[in-house]
Structure formats: C-alpha cells, structure tokens
UniProtKB/TrEMBL annotation:
<dbReference type="InterPro" id="IPR002130">
    <property type="entry name" value="Cyclophilin-type_PPIase_dom"/>
</dbReference>
<keyword id="KW-0413">Isomerase</keyword>
<comment type="similarity">
    <text>Belongs to the cyclophilin-type PPIase family.</text>
</comment>
<feature type="domain" description="PPIase cyclophilin-type">
    <location>
        <begin position="130"/>
        <end position="282"/>
    </location>
</feature>
<keyword id="KW-0472">Membrane</keyword>
<feature type="region of interest" description="Disordered">
    <location>
        <begin position="1"/>
        <end position="27"/>
    </location>
</feature>
<keyword id="KW-0812">Transmembrane</keyword>
<comment type="function">
    <text>PPIases accelerate the folding of proteins. It catalyzes the cis-trans isomerization of proline imidic peptide bonds in oligopeptides.</text>
</comment>
<dbReference type="InterPro" id="IPR029000">
    <property type="entry name" value="Cyclophilin-like_dom_sf"/>
</dbReference>
<dbReference type="GO" id="GO:0003755">
    <property type="term" value="F:peptidyl-prolyl cis-trans isomerase activity"/>
</dbReference>
<dbReference type="InterPro" id="IPR044666">
    <property type="entry name" value="Cyclophilin_A-like"/>
</dbReference>
<dbReference type="Pfam" id="PF00160">
    <property type="entry name" value="Pro_isomerase"/>
</dbReference>
<keyword id="KW-1133">Transmembrane helix</keyword>
<protein>
    <recommendedName>
        <fullName>Peptidyl-prolyl cis-trans isomerase</fullName>
        <ecNumber>5.2.1.8</ecNumber>
    </recommendedName>
</protein>
<feature type="transmembrane region" description="Helical">
    <location>
        <begin position="32"/>
        <end position="56"/>
    </location>
</feature>
<keyword id="KW-0697">Rotamase</keyword>
Length: 284
C-alpha cells in the first residue's frame, strides 16, 4: 500500500468517526430537547390548573351551588340568646283584687272560673307541661301578673289544658311565638270568662317569655303564647306572667324549624310538627 493510499484511509476513518460523534451529539441534543419539552409541558399544565382554580375561586358559584332562601313558612333565623326575665319598674301593691267575668261565649271545655278577690302579688310557681315534643318547664311570676298566674294555676288544677293542641305558630321576623290553650284548636275557644290586662308601658317580649293571648283589651281567658324567638313586633298589650327555661325553648325551636301550614299568611298557621299538651301539672 502506498503512503498516499494509507493517508487517504486514515482521513476517511477520521471523517467517519467525526460523523459518528456528530450523530451521537445530535441524538443527545434531541433527547435533551424532548426531556426539556416534557418538563415544560408539565409546568404549563400545572400552571394552567393553578390558574384555572385561581380564577374559579373568584367566579360566582354555579346556580346549583347558590344558597337557597328559606321557605316563607319557616323562620329565616331564630335568636339564641334568652331574654332577661321581665320585671316591673314599679312593683304592684302587696295584694291586688282579681275579678273573672263571665263571657258571652260559652266555655270550650267544662271549667269553673277562679274565685274573685285579693291575691298576693309576689312569689313564683312551677308548672310542667308534658307534651308530644317533650316536657316544657314554666315558671309563673305573681309579681308580674298575679291574676293571670291565679287563673293559669286554676286551669291547670282543673285539667283544662290536658289533651289540647297548640294551634298556632308564627315564624316571621318580629313575631316568633307558639300559641296554646284553646281546647277547640281553632283559636277562638276559651274558658267562658275573662279578666283584665296586667301590662305596663316598659314591657318588652323576648325569647323564653310567657304571655296571655287576647282578642282586645281585657279579654284574657285561657289562651297563652310562648315566645321562642324574635317578638320585637309586639307592643305591650299582652300580659306577661312568667318564663320558660332554655331546654324547653330549644324543643320549640325544632318545631319552628319544621315550619307552619299557612293559615293567616305564609308565616302564620298550624305547626307542621304537632304540639299536644298531654298533661299540665303544678308543683306542690
């Protein structure tokens, strides 16, 4: 082999090795490019998801996620704080005279009116109403309304409230009460007699209070109501005569939350969850 031929072969092998090295570098660069592109794609996807969530967080929720308004026949809210026990700014005399007048309407259930006469305007009495939703514990305050307390205890003693239903529930703002005491369940029944109001100008109604229902001035009979929530819409023309304890009020909350079957408007009617007074008992 001539020297020239040998040099040509060496040059050819050198060129081949260079070509192979160039090809390997191109392959490596391609692999690196794919890897970088893949990482870039992942980063873009991650950023994209983050941005989507970020934007989504500022968007309004879909219609199905929007909070729905409470039905009109249920309370939108019920205050949870118990009202302070009512108290007269000016105490009554040590004794007051109570008069129970016969009404034009007959008694809805056989009962005798309390005896007329003097009654002490001091002291408290406990009454338990065993009902279909649980026991309701009442405290009657003679310093507030001695004639109303005497009347209520008389009705309890004669079992007038036994096996009667609380016929009315109101759930609107400003008037959240449960009304009971009518044996007919119609809202028009009574004991066949009435007695005078025992109200005062600073009287305010709140959660946990008991008061007499009426159909006008001095028409108190047997119907009463329990304030379980907001009663800011009431003016001082209903005789307050005691309170009900907090566990008992919470039982009524559940009744209110179930709503009413409307009768006197969408927020005033009979409770969907029936409340029946099975027995009423005064503590000895």
């Amino acid at each position: 082999m001539s020297k020239k031929t040998h040099q040509q072969q060496l040059a050819a092998r050198k060129a081949q090795r260079q070509a192979e090295r160039d090809a390997e570098r191109r392959r490596q660069r391609r692999n690196l490019a794919i890897t970088v592109a893949s990482v870039a794609t992942v980063v873009v996807v991650i950023v994209g998801v983050f941005v989507v969530f970020g934007v989504g967080g500022d968007d309004k929720p879909a219609a199905s996620d929007q909070p729905t308004a409470a039905p009109e026949n249920k309370p939108t809210s019920i205050p949870t704080a118990m009202a302070a026990a009512p108290k007269r700014a000016t105490p009554l005399a040590a004794e007051v005279n109570c008069v129970y007048k016969k009404s034009a309407e007959p008694a809805s259930k056989p009962v005798n009116p309390p005896a007329d006469g003097k009654v002490k305007a001091s002291g408290t009495s406990k009454v338990s109403l065993n009902t279909s939703i649980g026991d309701l514990q009442l405290t009657l305050d003679s310093a507030l309304a001695p004639c109303a307390v005497k009347n209520f205890l008389s009705l309890v003693g004669q079992k007038y409230f036994d096996n009667t239903k609380c016929h009315r529930l109101t759930v609107g703002e400003g008037l959240q009460v449960l009304q009971c005491g009518d044996p007919t369940g119609s809202g028009s029944g009574g004991p066949g007699y009435s007695f005078a109001d025992e109200v005062y100008p600073t009287l305010k109604y709140g959660r946990g209070m008991l008061a007499m229902a009426n159909s006008g001035a001095n028409t108190n009979g047997s119907q009463f109501f329990i304030v379980y929530g907001d009663a800011s819409g009431l003016t001082p023309q209903y005789t307050a005569f005691g309170t009900i304890d907090e566990p008992s009020v919470k039982l009524i909350d559940k009744v209110a939350e179930a709503g009413v079957t409307p009768q006197n408007g969408p927020q005033d009617g009979t409770p969907i969850t029936p409340v029946e007074i099975k027995t009423a008992t005064a503590a000895a």
